[in-house]
Specification:
Helix content is about 45%, strand content about 15%. It is α+β, with helices and mostly antiparallel strands.
C-alpha cells in the first residue's frame, strides 16, 4: 500500500506538471505545519496575471487531488485543534521600465537620490496606518475570521512589521539623518556544532505580522486559502495610490522629500 505522504507527493508533483503545461511555474512545494497540510509557491509576476493564475491553480489542485483519491480542502477555519489554511500575497510596486520602488539599491541606482526610497517606504507605512480597516475587510470571510489570531498567526489586527534593520534606518531618517539603506544579514545557527551557521537576510518576514516587509516587497500574510486575492491587491494598490498622491502634491508644492518622509513617519 502507498503511504499517505507518498500519495500527497505524487499528487503535488502532478499538480506542478499540469500547471506547467498551462504556463504556470510553481517554484516550490513543501509540507506545512498541520497534519496533511502542504504549500506551493508560484513565481512572481504582474499582479493581474498572478491573480488569474492563482485561481487556476486552486481549480487544478482540487481536480488533481480527486484523481489521486484525495480531497484538497481550501479551508481557512481551524478544526479539532488543527490550524486552518491561508496564503501569502507578496506585493511590490514597479515602474513600467522595471524599477522596483521597494528595492533600495535599484531606486538609488536609477534616481541617484537617497531620499526616494525612504519616501516610498514612509508613504506605504502611512497608508497601512491610515487604512488598516480596508485591509482587514479585504481578507474577511467566515472561515478566515475564525483563523486569524486564533489557532495561528497572523493576528486579525492590521499592522506592518519592517524588521529591526530597516526600522533602525527609518528611525534615523525620521531623526534627520539621511543615508543609504543597505540590508543587513544575520547568522542563523542550527544548534549543533556539526552544522555551521548560515547567513540570512535581516528582513525575516515576521510570521506574527499580517503585513511584514520581506526585502524588496511586502507580504500580506492574512489572506484566506480559498480567497480570490483580486480585492486584496485592489486595496493595496488603492491605498498606496492615495499615499503617493499626497506625497506628489506636497512635492509639487515645494516641500523636500526628506521633510515629507519625516512627517509621514
Amino acid at each position: 500500500p502507498i503511504s499517505r505522504a507518498t500519495a500527497a507527493f505524487e499528487c503535488m508533483r502532478q499538480i506542478q506538471q499540469e500547471c506547467f503545461k498551462m504556463g504556470i511555474p510553481l517554484k516550490t512545494r513543501h509540507r506545512e505545519v498541520a497534519p496533511n497540510q502542504y504549500e506551493f509557491a508560484p513565481m512572481f509576476g504582474n499582479a493581474i496575471t498572478q491573480v488569474d493564475q492563482n485561481l487556476m491553480i486552486m481549480q487544478i489542485i482540487e481536480e488533481v487531488a480527486s484523481e489521486h483519491g484525495l480531497a484538497a480542502l481550501l479551508q481557512e477555519k481551524p478544526f479539532a485543534g488543527v490550524n486552518g489554511s491561508g496564503k501569502h500575497n507578496n506585493w511590490s510596486i514597479g515602474t513600467s521600465d522595471g524599477l522596483n520602488l521597494m528595492n533600495p539599491k535599484q531606486v538609488k541606482a536609477v534616481t541617484g537620490n537617497s531620499e526616494i526610497f525612504p519616501l516610498v517606504m514612509s508613504a506605504i507605512v502611512s497608508a497601512v496606518d491610515k487604512h488598516g480597516d480596508l485591509m482587514r475587510l479585504a481578507i474577511a470571510s467566515p472561515g478566515n475570521d475564525f483563523r486569524l489570531g486564533a489557532m495561528e498567526a497572523p493576528p486579525a489586527v492590521m499592522s506592518t512589521y519592517l524588521g529591526p534593520s530597516i526600522t533602525d534606518y527609518l528611525n534615523t531618517v525620521k531623526n534627520g539623518s539621511l543615508g543609504d539603506y543597505s540590508p543587513q544579514k544575520k547568522d542563523l545557527a542550527f544548534g549543533t556544532e556539526t552544522i555551521p551557521s548560515i547567513q540570512v537576510p535581516a528582513e525575516d518576514r515576521n510570521r506574527t505580522s499580517p503585513f511584514p516587509y520581506g526585502g524588496n516587497r511586502f507580504e500580506f500574510r492574512a489572506a484566506g486559502s480559498s480567497q480570490n486575492v483580486s480585492l486584496v491587491n485592489t486595496v493595496l494598490n488603492t491605498i498606496s495610490a492615495e499615499a503617493f498622491k499626497i506625497v506628489a502634491d506636497r512635492l509639487e508644492a515645494g516641500e523636500k522629500p526628506l521633510a515629507i518622509a519625516q512627517d509621514l513617519l
